[in-house]
Write a structure and sequence with these properties.
Pfam families: CCDC22_CC. The protein has 391 residues and is an all-alpha fold. It has eight helices and no strands.
Length: 391
Amino acid sequence: MHQAGLITKGSQQELKQRKKERIQKRIADAFRKVAVPPDEASELVSKERLQRTRDVLCNKGSKFARAEKLQFAKDEQPGHVSGPNDIVAITKKTSEQEAEAKVAALQIEICSVMETLEKLENQERELSASLMQIGEDISQKKSKTAELESKNKFEHKALSLLPNAEENILKLQQKIDGAAQNLLSLSAQWEKHRAPLIEQYRDLKEQCSKRLSETQQKLEEIKSLRDKMKDIQEQARYKDELHKQLLSEYEKLVKDVSRSAYTKRIAEIVGNIKKQKEEIAKVLTDTRTLQKEINHLTGKLDRTFTVTDELIFRDAKKDEAVRRAYKYLAAVHENSNELLQAVEDTGAILREVRDLEDQIEQESQKKVVANLERITADYKQMKQENASLLA
């Protein structure tokens, strides 16, 4: 069917080409008869010039009609020949009129030829559309034919298996058994690879849990060391305040005591000061030791976390459980840092509270001392007044 369509299309194109050649030949012959140059004849054959000529001829009447009217008008006018010049003029005018008539006739013929060409072009467009539709139908039928052929092959193959149905069923069963054996062998191979992977995963999980417990223990140790360091700092602060208080009391002592008592008191104060300095130095040494130990444990904790992070991160790309363990480790590390920061903030707040309490206590003591001094002064004044009265 497709070949028939191609043959029809080819024959139509050849027929159209032959018609165009015949029309062009007739136009060229006509222009040769009226002595038109070949170049002008070829230009007249072109589609645009022919279209313009057809429009002029078909819309507003032909030049031949106008020439014919002019000829009839001239024939109707009375005239007479009055010499050889008039005869030559008449002959020349007659030949010009004949040439114009021939040109007009050719133009009319060209107009009809153009109409024929337009009809042929319309037919060609219609045939092209029909050929496109036929081509689409052919492609659809080809696809349907291919589908039917594949279905036919499948059915033919199934029908070919029917005469030896038992033998073919046995072959299919053998293939199914072979596939089942392959699946079993693949499953066994997977189990061989799976067992060591599971063991490795369990070992890594256990190591991770141990490291997490060690990390938690180290965090607890750091917390206890920091609490101890805060206590020592509080003791040092208390002793500094006590030292200041003793110095103030020393300054307030009566100056008219004996030299030995004064020297003894000074020795006691110096001894107390030395003891306090020794205790303060000891406290400072303990504080520095604790700070070094805290820094050491903090660095060790950071290094442990870094190593743990590298070990778990290396295996986290391959195993989902290890990936979750890595996330938990990161969360524990972050929470630990937040916990340490919270402990430090709490210690700072407690120190501020204790400082405020010490200030309150100092202010209270100052008021008590002032009251005692005022009462003592009043008592002395009363004694003096009583003595003066007795005298």
